[in-house]
Amino acid sequence: MVEAVVIDLFSLPANLQKNVQGLLHDMLKTIEKGSSIPAPFVYIMCCLRQGNERNGEQESLLPALRDFRSLKKRLEVVRALTTAAALYTIKQRLDEKDLSIVKVILPTLRKDLMKVYIEHLFTAVYQFEFEDLQLASDSENLYIAQPWSEGQMLPMQDVALVQSEIQMYLESLPSLKGEVTILRSSLIPGDIFLHGFTTRAGGISYIPTLSSCNLFSSSKRRDPQVVVKENLRRIANAAGFNPETFHRVKIDHANAVCIMGKTEPDSYDGIVTNQKGVTIAAPGADCIPVLFADPVRKACGAAHSGWKGTLLGVSMATVNAMVSEYGCNVKDILVVLGPSVGPCCYKLPHESAKEFHRIDPKCVRLFDSASPYIDIRRATRILLESGGILPENIQDDSVTDQNQSITLCTACHPDKFYSHFRDGANFGTQIGFISIKD
Fold first, then answer.
1. Does domain 182-436 match CATH 3.60.140.10?
2. pLDDT, tens digit (0-9, with 9 covering 90-100), for 293-312
3. What family is reported (predicted)?
């Protein structure tokens, strides 16, 4: 069942501008007659022309809206200077109400263009269907045609213009939850490496569990890739790295490592480089983003270490890649454990807890319970030290220095970090990043 209807009156032909009220009246009448209970939410997209502020056009539409009592509280006119701005505003309304099944009624000539906007601003969470709004130049009436069937591809220059319009609009949006905040370790020398761990502040993501600097998009979440890209751009500006030379691990919850400059695996949880100006990163939202730096050989690495990756030794696999590829001495490698779920909050089923108990009984609390508490940080430290990393070269604030405030529990700090454990399936993601300075 359609949950929302978007009526695109953004680019009506000039000879029909005078008849907007009649067009709208007929359209709403059609929707009201064909609607089930409850009626869908209706959003009318209109162009807000510069110099023509709210009152003029808005007042002209009011008579057409007054007749539709059943839609009155579920109808909104959305005006903006660009299609991107109008559609993004409508997306916010849909997300506020957790709506995802949308019908778009629009002029035939706008269909292919609208599809590009939707492809960039929405994810697979949403379902769209399209109907033609047929506008005859000699008539004030409009007719609903058959559902849309896919037409020809838009010229690439038109797609590029849409992308540019979306990017400019997103760049103009204010940061939410304060300015970008980046946590840095004193263990990694700042004269050689640029590094940090992001927090959830300073981005434009507005959905509560993703707000505001979410750095991951998927088909199951409502944050599209363009929003994540804008959040990353703001992080890059604040941190001082180039987002165009940014590489994030492709998570598999295993222990494969990508060597920058060599063939990239389909998936990997560790990544290493000795190339200057290339920023590598690992995400985390309970899982540990681990950073590695060798100031002697000037090489670095990043790893995503969840409970599975920890047991599979992803951190030592990353260390071993630095040793084999760049000639690093394991005793020179510095390791920093980023924000992650702590043993205060993190639980696993008893069968999985047994594996951590074998590493060290102190990695498990309430071992005899059905879901013991797990310390994946301690397990990571033990495995690193067993592999030759010096204890003093590992930073884990939960044991080494409480004042550093880097290895904080993500689940305990909803103001600072995202947490899958705390927030459920629609969770946001922060990252740990590192690069070698030019």
1. yes
2. 999 999 999 999 999 999 99
3. Belongs to the purine nucleoside phosphorylase YfiH/LACC1 family.
